[in-house]
Write a structure and sequence with these properties.
The chain has 249 residues and is an alpha/beta fold. Helices cover 38% and strands 24% of the residues.
Length: 249
Amino acid sequence: MTLLRTEALKKHFGETRAVDGVDFTVNEGEFLSLVGTNGAGKTTLVNLISAFLLPDSGRIFIGDRDITHASVDERIRSGIARSFQLVNLFDDLSVLDNVSLAIFAREGKTRRPFSLAARDAAVTREAEEFLAEFRLGDKAQSPARDLAQGERKLLDVAVAYALRPKLLFLDEPTSGVSTRDKTQIMDTVSAVVRGGGITAVVIEHDMDVVFKYSDRVVVMHEGRFLADGPPEEIRRNRDVAKYLLGTDV
């Protein structure tokens, strides 16, 4: 069943056609990777879907609902959440408080989050459960700034996941970490997301990660879709090999 779709979505920056008439479909329950060279339009597409940019034309739907002109908050309420390539955390707060704030926001308790945090046992329990799922339980009381880079990446995903989205966008969740940490991050994220029945779209450059974890891979090139299919089909695609990998099949 289709969870999200775009129709002829466009975003141009001067002569640059960052997203050029894209029809994008995400199905419920899939773990999809969105790949392409730098400047292919991946992040622009996600920014359009998550309301960080407005499209020049085209439409965006979550289920049957047109959210093309919905605000960031409205899209979060409709079930869309995201993490960022550059981790966006409250570094002076504890790991637990970072996740708790996402829960407060989800529940509409943002007017007095810090006073609520001291006495809202249900939020604390839920935040602790999320941290345990993301293997950060032993870091709950640590300031976010003290986490290693891989742990920061996991916390950023945990914060987005705490919004209980239907659709979770993950922007470069393994960037800037070692090969070993990449595997640990993706094993954890994949297990949590799949276990929670969440649909995920991952922007990723590491093709080993893409081929290992994805149900479907969508390849962008110069603002358009170059290929769309299961990992083995994408691996054998000559256009993908030429433009993305710089090799022949």
